Amino acid sequence: MTTTAPEAGRSPARERPGPRRRPLTLRRRESRAGLALVAPTLLVVAAVIGIPIVWTVVLAFQRVRLATLRRSGLFGEFTLSNFDRVLHTPGFAETLWTTLLYSLGGTFGSIVIGVVAALVVRRPFRGRTLVRASMLLPYVAPVVAVAFVWQVMLDPQLGIVNDWGQRFLGWDAPIPFLSQDSTALWTVIAFEAWRYFPFAFLFLLARLQAVPVDLEEAARVDGATPTQRFRHILLPQLMPVIVLLAVLRFIMTFNKFDDVYLLTGGSAGTEVVSVRVYQFLTARTDVGAAAAQAVVLAVVLIAFVAIYLRFFTARREA
Amino acid sequence: MDRDRLETVSLRWLRRLVIAAFLVVTVLPFWYMLVLSVRPIERLLLDPGSLWVPVSEFTVATYAEVLKAAEDGGQGFLTFIRNSGLVALAATALTLVVAIPGAYAVARLRFFGRRQVNALFLAVYLFPSIVIAIPLFVVFTRVGLRGSLFGLVLVYISQTLPVSVYMLKNYFETIPVSLEESAAIDGAGRLGIIRRVSLPLAAPSIMAVALYDFMIAWNEFLFALLFLVDKPNRWTVSLGLSLLSDGVEVPKTVLMAGSVILTLPIVILFFASERLLTEGLTSGAEKG
């Protein structure tokens, strides 16, 4: 390793007597400093994330209601009745199925749009910075605001979509996108794809710009057309990022609460698991059932991700 | 015309078309929000398809209604803005105080369990927030922190900390070790090195993380809904806006004015720091 002298001027001039230490002690000092520095972070994570996760599991096996909360102890009797209640409340299977469709649709949509977006702004053109910034707008804007804009735009009476649809596309009657079963889930998925394609776009664009120019140039000289270059040069380069994005987006969409809750409130066949957990917690004030439902969510999610990773790593080795 | 030429020409046009489509799809909703917020509701009902405000229709009465305090017949958004701002700033500051040393340690120092810590942050980041929400809801109800902004700040740290550590770690890793070593040889202690070498070099990325945290906290909705719903004077802008729509006959134009108020600070922050943010978020992504 090299030592660059120029920076020395900025470092403190405090002279310590005899900084000579044996390598072992230096290493131990480093280890100790590392633990000391990371300790606050770990403590906070344990306090606001670790303990709550464990506690949810504990609550899932207890009979707890909001009304009895102040009196009940931490470790009461354990029971399986919460899971029984959760599994047998009407709509359990439908909710899981909806969540799965919603997550798959949202993930697929956001990645496909993200790839297209990354491809079109890859090369410099006038106004590129502005276009790139606008493409990130849906992602950075507050969810409550964008959900309301979508609601108003899709509104059957005063929404611009139905107005234009009737005027220019010849629709016979306004379509209540968010309140009829046949369109609500698709609309929510479209919202998800719209709001999160920038996330995929950012990562894909960063990867695209790291693809060596020579590689494409060589393919062009060899007579590969643009689509062939995409198929055989760019896509293989993007694949690892796409695979990673698919896992990330799937997990995040699977857990999503805000978007569905704000757009439809879970009505018209769009109830996803986290909205259901919220209903158990607030409308029914059944903390135990809510926790059990949340545990089911986490377990199903972990199972899906495990299968996906397994399948993918297996295919890669083959 | 051969295939290569055909593809090149048609793709060139397709590209322009697609860029235009992207602009429409991403910007139009925000433009629509802005237009609606300055139109009277009666006019909107007559002509819902307009994307322009005639000067004669222009009104800011919607904003007045949204911002005025509840006692004066408004929706009290000024209070909400203050609440949101306080909570977001506090959460950002606390997150950074905890995340910077942690990220530095994970990036630079070899200590027992370093790799596990690394994995832990990713796992925690991806864990469903509704799972965390239930026990926090229970605890806060018990100790009386429900309805307090301080409690909310604590919860927001759980949302911002993992991603902040991850982003900062990626950046600290790009700082050449030799710089720190030369400082060490000159007799700087570990904290001295962090303060005088690493932090100044990481300043842009710390700024990016701070902005990102602020946005997360400002935009957050679920926890605000769970913890603050009974205390109208503590509502954040997101929560206030979402409950506005449940209210008795609040016109959509007023709702849009509220949406603009909620969105504007974020959009301004974002455009002011777009480059910083984009690079901060994906630094390290090109490793594949």
Automatic annotation (TrEMBL), chain A:
Its subcellular locations are: Cell membrane
Might you name a Gene Ontology BP term for this protein? transmembrane transport
Tell me how this protein sits in the membrane: Multi-pass membrane protein
What CDD domains would the database entry show? TM_PBP2
Kindly list the GO CC terms recorded for this protein. Answer: plasma membrane
Where primarily located? membrane
Membrane-spanning parts: 35-61, 100-121, 133-153, 184-206, 233-252, 290-312
Keyword terms, alphabetized: Cell membrane, Membrane, Transmembrane, Transmembrane helix, Transport
Could you confirm whether the keyword Phosphoprotein appears in this record? Answer: no
Specify the superkingdom.
Bacteria
Q: Where is this region: Disordered?
A: 1-22
Which intervals hold domain ABC transmembrane type-1? 96-308
List, alphabetically, the Pfam families matched. Answer: BPD_transp_1
Cited PANTHER family: BLL4140 PROTEIN, DIACETYLCHITOBIOSE UPTAKE SYSTEM PERMEASE PROTEIN DASB
Per the record, the similarity remark reads: Belongs to the binding-protein-dependent transport system permease family.
* Record protein name field: Sugar ABC transporter permease
- Its source organism is Micromonospora sicca
Automatic annotation (TrEMBL), chain B:
Judging by the UniProt lineage, the source's domain of life is Bacteria
Q: Does the keyword Ribosomal protein apply?
A: no
The membrane topology term of the UniProt record is:
Multi-pass membrane protein
User: What Pfam families does the record point to?
Assistant: BPD_transp_1
Residue intervals of the ABC transmembrane type-1 domain: 81-273
Q: Does the keyword Metal-binding apply?
A: no
GO BP of this protein: transmembrane transport
Q: Which regions span the lipid bilayer? A: 13-34, 86-107, 119-143, 149-168, 205-229, 253-272
| Keywords, comma-separated and alphabetical | Cell membrane, Membrane, Transmembrane, Transmembrane helix, Transport
Location in the cell: Cell membrane
An example GO CC term for this entry is: plasma membrane
Main location as per UniProt: membrane
What family is it from?
Belongs to the binding-protein-dependent transport system permease family.
Protein name listed in UniProt? Transporter
User: Which species?
Assistant: Micromonospora sicca
